[in-house]
Specification:
This protein is an alpha+beta fold. It has helices spanning about 10-20, 25-35, 50-65, 75-90, 130-155, 160-180, 190-200, 215-225, 250-260, 300-305, and strands at about 35-40, 40-45, 95, 205-210, 210-215, 230-235, 240-250, 265-270, 275, 285, 290. Helix 3 crosses helix 4 and helix 9 packs across helix 10 (about 300-305).
């Protein structure tokens, strides 16, 4: 599948090749034509590039490094998982354009001009002599030279690793405090997911979001090991990103079959209806609690074809 992405480096060419081979039609549409978002009271087109992804991947890699470490080892499959998430997630901003395809430039912020108060000079009770003036000027020049020498000495001496670690720790603490001060709301999607997971604590829970079935928290960790999926993260408005794995909807039956070899499975469809496998249960809406008499078409029929009579939905 041809994608409208410019690859400037060998690494970007590898990512582009992976996306062209694995992206769904919906994801390809997002990459080629962008997604409309609302910002600053305007409707804008959000288009992402491989340059933007490389910055995103670098940020994710830094998060994997332990405190004080200078590097992190990241597998190819992890980077490819980041690529799918970066281009799939609508909340991540890339290059922004107006609807007429011109580049979006935010309006400059208007700030109040500071009020400058005139400084009243104090009258000296005594007249300064020429000798006093020259002595004062000489002392000021001497102080200025000493300040310049001190600055030069500081520039010549690079900070030690301990000083660097202290500065990084201070920055991390500042970011943590700033994050706590912001009012953040937990995503309604994640509230539904955790509610279902509590109701089915011994099951793996999958949630259909867009073109993917996604797993979070303990279900994500479990499917990462069972199905060899890349464990990444998703922002739901919490202090830290929630562990996440995901599979495309058109290949989900293969992964679900693998999960059902050792675990029970709960699937939340896009209409928030819940389906459990292989346990017999009513189909209910996870958000309203309403009992749904007939299940939606989709992964249920696929699982029925694969596993036969062990799936019972009524």
């Amino acid at each position: 599948m041809k994608l409208d992405l410019e690859a400037k480096t060998k690494e970007q060419e590898l990512v582009k090749a992976y996306l062209e081979e694995n992206a769904s039609e919906v994801l390809a549409e997002k990459i080629n034509n962008g997604v409309r978002i609302e910002k600053d009271g305007k409707t804008l087109i959000n288009k992402k590039t491989l340059d933007g992804f490389m910055k995103y991947a670098s940020s994710e890699a830094r998060k994997l490094a332990s405190n004080g470490a200078n590097s992190a080892c990241v597998e190819d499959k992890v980077v490819y998982g980041w690529a799918v998430h970066y281009f799939e997630e609508d909340s991540i901003e890339g290059a922004l354009y107006n609807e007429d395809e011109s580049e979006y430039k935010p309006a400059p912020k208007v700030t109040d001009k500071p009020v400058v108060k005139p400084v009243q000079q104090k009258k000296n009770s005594a007249q300064i002599s020429m000798f006093d003036f020259e002595e004062k000027e000489e002392q000021e020049n001497k102080n200025e030279q000493e300040d310049q020498n001190e600055e030069a000495e500081v520039e010549e001496e690079p900070p030690t690793q301990e000083e660097i670690n202290e500065m990084l720790a201070e920055l991390a603490e500042d970011e943590k405090q700033e994050s706590k001060q912001k009012e953040r709301q937990v995503s309604p999607l994640y509230k539904i997911y955790t509610k279902v997971q509590k109701e089915y604590p011994d099951c793996i829970v999958a949630y259909k979001i867009g073109d993917f079935y996604e797993f979070f928290d303990d279900s994500a960790r479990a499917t990462s090991e069972l199905c060899d999926l890349t464990l990444t993260g998703r922002d739901f408005g919490l202090e830290s990103r929630v562990p996440m794995t995901g599979v495309p909807y058109h290949t989900a039956d293969m992964y679900f079959k693998k999960i059902l070899e050792t675990h029970k499975l709960v699937v939340i469809e896009t209409d928030n209806s819940i389906h459990t496998y292989p346990t017999e249960t009513d189909v209910i809406n996870a958000e309203t609690g309403e009992i749904i008499s007939e299940p939606e078409d989709g992964i249920i029929n696929k699982l029925r074809d694969i596993l036969g009579d062990c799936i019972i939905v009524r």
